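Researcher: Good morning. I'm working through a list of sequences from a screen, and I'd like to move beyond sequence-only analysis. For each chain I'm collecting a predicted structure so we can compare shapes side by side. This is the next one on the list. No need for commentary yet; just the structure.
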Amino acid sequence: MSLFTDRLHADAEDVERALEAWLPMPEDDAAGNLHESMRYSALGGGKRLRGHLVLTFCTLFGGEREAALPYAAAIEMMHAFSLIHDDLPAMDNDDMRRGRPSNHKVYGEATALLAGDALALRALETAASNPYCDAKQNAEAARLLASAAGAAGMCGGQQIDLQSEQQTIPMELLTDLVLRKTGALFAVSCELGLIAASAFDEEAHASARTFARHIGLAFQITDDLLDLRSTPEVLGKTTGKDEKSGKATFPALLGVKEAEALAKSHCEQAVSLLDKLPAGDERSSLRGLCEFILTRTM
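Model: Good morning. Structure tokens for this chain:
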């Protein structure tokens, strides 16, 4: 797993620099507070797993990292948008994110709402403006990113999540919820890497999507387990909230032991798919990612 962690840290630094470049702080702008709010969440640390997947799949298929970095910045902006909105009182009502106050606790709910909207739009603008890729690549990148974030993806998953509180929902619906809310951004991250590498083969995209869906499910299950086991100091956000609010989660539906087994099964299926991808350090690193998901503590 050391190969994965080394690459993740290096990629996180590069993605952070790309975000700084694509989210400048303008001088003498009357809406400066909005830009500060956007930067507060987008540049607020985090593992940068989604950006890492963009870079990894790009180099795995023979592309240049430089071409993938704007797409990596775009996916992290879209992720930041989702976190800002998730934390709002009307959604999950969380006061802490990544070890510090949530955006709305610093800037107020109205500005936080606008910052989330602006980050989502800036993400699409960034994907569409990647100077290292051609118009076809950028159009496809923006289309996939919008689809993954919209009603068929992340926003739809959040809606199912909200309307499922205090209910026991069937396994199929819970899986759909997670595939949309978490898995969709993992899947588009892998596909953005392929696009940056000019890899448009449908079989490669299908393998990448399936891999991402398995790690997305495993990641969310371990996230739900950490909510039960960890502390705010370690996790960087409020813990125990899922159980208190009656959230639909795999541990709540299946129990802890079965949820752990399901997460392991999804990671094993993800690893088995790697044999369909090109050999190299990137493929080995993706194996490390699967191990990391099962053993992570934050």
